[in-house]
Specification:
This protein is an alpha+beta fold. Helices cover about 55% and strands about 10% of the residues. Among the domains are: about 200 residues, no CATH class; about 140 residues, PH-domain like, CATH 2.30.29.30.
Length: about 675
């Protein structure tokens, strides 16, 4: 347009995030994108830099509001930071003269500018940090300012141990618990986010102390009652934080799980002896002088054998295997002290059985502890995206030990139902593992409910379930049925393709995850009803299904070149940390479009969404659907279709070969000749 001083102007998207067009992103402009002519980022940065120093309150507020909005753009952020703009923001906060809306815009702008990682969090002054902390610690502060302050501290904590120490010292756990108890869900969420960030950045000893303190303050009961069972549905973000809290809490057992028993430790030997004394109290109450040392040793060995130790002369040997290490001993002692009647019944009941039919308590406890550690993922690092927590975990103190007490009694019950002998030990433990995992998958809300359900799922029920699953497999293995399966496959695969495309048309909410932390930012992607264009754009928290017109960005399906998954994706390669989080890799996929450098990167919220999206995109690209979900869906549909087709053949065995076709008759005179129809 031959404008004078062209460098003072720039193009900017009119919709969505209103990003500036630069040399690096100009190729991303899609047909149909609406652009507007505006002042260039450096001019705008200069104007706002002066505006936020204005003595006029209205000018200053408007400048800060515009700054909070524009700071999301990386080009503008670079220009503003290069003018030492952050220093002005620091001074506004440090002077503390402004409050309310002006302060909220200042903190929002600061958060957005720091998001670009141009400036290290360690450069922040002590005065600034203390001011942010004061907004969290004061009562008479606007909730939006407290939310932003909590969010800033949450970002700060993982960056350095020094900042972690400052925040931990200044923001007490009591204060965070106060914020957790408010009715404002967003404030509650940010307080939980900071609590989790502190727990993850702490050393093992600090984490243990923090968890002990939280236990004293009954945080579990509060979460169980007011967050899990509140009238509001639980959001993804909060579900993730509850999963992390559960994981951190259970991982406190890791230390004992990895520690072998030391036969020279008096404390550990006393724990072991207490098991014997609790079980055989009356027999052990004989005065020391009554038996010789040799006789006493043989009596102890006999009692340890009754307790189910393999090495009865030196039971410490059984506990040398780590995992489960000393955790198994802790569980056995907890069971004997907290449920002494059930413990005595277990031991005495098995002492009176024949040798080969007795259920070995100690051996079962050691193996059961190992099974529980594997099921509950004890000792494994927290996932960045998982949300699978057990509601009953928050309803019970000493959750792991209480769960063990229920399950060890289940072992004895299943042992009797299976009429097992010592040779069947592994089979029994396999059934017990299945009983526990099947019951946990039902997500019981309390341990009482878990106990009821797991006991109802007895050995005969497990056999029935296994039998049903086996029959499903067997009936579909006959040769004619296999041929019918192959014939039905194309039709059912087409049905799955249609379902995948319909799911893409409905769209999905995705999260943005940076290398630093789990992000709150959301974006939505959906396929147009004619399957020609992918629409996407940023959305606010709480928006479930935005209309297609509100999504400003788009990619024509014709421009899509290929689909990348897992380690091939550019956004998983960007993360420099060697220990790339496994579950993010499992959920990552990218669409390469136009020229190969341009990718749209996704991290699916769940494995289910990952499968549906990768399948749908493969269908659009004219390729085979490759996810495990396709196979599962196909098996389910084939199974249903086959059952419907074979309904009339119930209880009739299907021969492998078709019956022979009879020979044609010697003459065909029985056929009616229509040519001589009656007139």
């Amino acid at each position: 347009w031959s404008l004078p001083n062209a460098e003072r102007y720039a193009l900017q998207y009119a919709d969505g995030r209103q990003t500036y067009i630069t040399e690096s992103n100009r190729r991303d402009i899609k047909n149909g994108s609406i652009l507007r002519l505006t002042t260039s980022p450096d001019q705008e940065a200069e104007r706002l830099y002066i505006g936020i120093q204005s003595k006029n309150v209205d000018v200053k507020t408007d400048s800060l509001k515009k700054l909070a909005s524009l700071s999301q753009d990386v080009t503008f952020a670079q220009e503003f930071i290069s003018r030492n703009g952050l220093k002005q923001i620091y001074s506004i906060v440090e002077e503390g003269n402004d409050a309310g809306e002006m302060l909220a815009h200042t903190l929002k702008a600061f958060t957005e500018l720091m998001e670009h990682d141009f400036v290290s969090w360690e450069n922040l002054s002590t005065v600034f940090i203390k001011k942010i902390v004061s907004y969290v610690n004061m009562n008479a502060v606007d909730a939006s300012i407290q939310q932003l302050s909590l969010s800033i501290l949450e970002n700060m904590v993982p960056t350095s141990h020094l900042l972690f120490e400052v925040v931990k010292k200044e923001v007490t756990l009591d204060r965070l618990l106060t914020h957790l108890q408010v009715t404002n869900a967003q404030l509650q969420l940010k307080a939980m986010a900071l609590l989790i960030a502190l727990l993850l950045s702490a050393t093992e000893a600090e984490r243990r102390d923090m968890m002990d303190y939280l236990r004293e303050k009954n945080i579990r009961q509060f979460i169980h009652k007011n967050i899990i069972h509140s009238s509001e549905p639980l959001g993804d973000e909060m579900a993730h934080y509850l999963y992390v809290l559960q994981s951190v809490s259970l991982n406190l057992c890791e230390h004992r799980m990895k520690m072998s028993m030391d036969p020279y430790s008096q404390e550990q030997r006393d724990l072991l002896q207490s098991l014997r004394q609790t079980a055989f109290e009356s027999e052990s109450d004989v005065p020391a002088g009554t038996f010789s040392t040799e006789r006493r040793r043989s009596l102890c060995a006999k009692e340890f054998r009754k307790l189910g130790f393999v090495n009865n002369s030196n039971p410490a040997e059984d506990l040398r295997r780590a995992p489960p290490g000393l955790l198994a001993l802790d569980n056995m002692v907890y069971f004997s002290r907290n449920t002494p009647n059930a413990y005595s019944r277990f031991i005495l009941e098995n002492s009176s059985r024949e040798d080969k039919h007795e259920c070995p308590f100690a051996r079962s406890s050691i193996q059961l502890t190992l099974i529980l550690c594997e099921i509950l993922h004890i000792g494994e690092p927290c996932s960045e995206t998982a949300q699978a927590f057990y509601p009953m975990f928050f309803g019970q103190d000493h959750f792991f030990e209480e769960l063990f007490c229920i399950c060890i009694q289940l072992v004895n019950k299943t042992w009797k139902e299976m009429r097992a002998t010592q040779e069947d030990f592994d089979k029994v433990m396999q059934v017990v593992r299945e009983q526990i995992t099947r019951t946990l998958s039902l997500k019981p809300t309390s341990l009482e409910l878990f106990k009821t359900r797991v006991n109802a799922l007895n050995y005969s029920e497990i056999l029935k379930l296994r039998q049903t699953e086996r029959l499903h497999q067997e009936e579909t293995l006959a040769v004619p049925v296999l041929a019918l399966r192959e014939k039905l496959k194309p039709e059912l695969l087409e049905l799955i393709r249609q379902q995948r495309l319909l799911h893409l048309c409905e769209g999905t909410l995705f999260r943005k995850i940076s290398s630093r932390r789990r992000q709150d930012k959301l974006w939505y992607c959906r396929l147009s009803p004619n399957h020609k264009v992918l629409h996407y754009g940023d959305v606010e928290e709480g928006v479930q299904s935005p209309p297609i017109e509100s999504l400003s960005e788009k990619i024509p399906v014709a421009d899509m070149k290929m689909l990348l998954v897992g380690k091939e994706c550019p956004h998983t390669k960007e993360k420099s940390s060697g220990k790339q989080n496994k579950d993010v890799l499992e959920l990552a996929f990218s669409i390469v479009h136009d020229v190969e450098e341009y990718c749209l990167n996704f991290i699916a919220p769940t494995r289910y969404e990952f499968c549906l999206w990768t399948d749908g995109l493969n269908v659009l690209l004219g390729r085979e659907m490759t996810s495990e979900r396709t196979q599962t869906d196909l098996d389910v549909l084939l199974s249903m279709e086959l059952k419907l087709r074979l309904l009339d053949l119930e209880n009739i065995s299907i021969p492998d070969d078709p019956p022979p076709i009879p020979k044609p008759p010697s003459n065909l005179n029985f056929c009616y000749d229509f040519s001589h129809a009656e007139q």
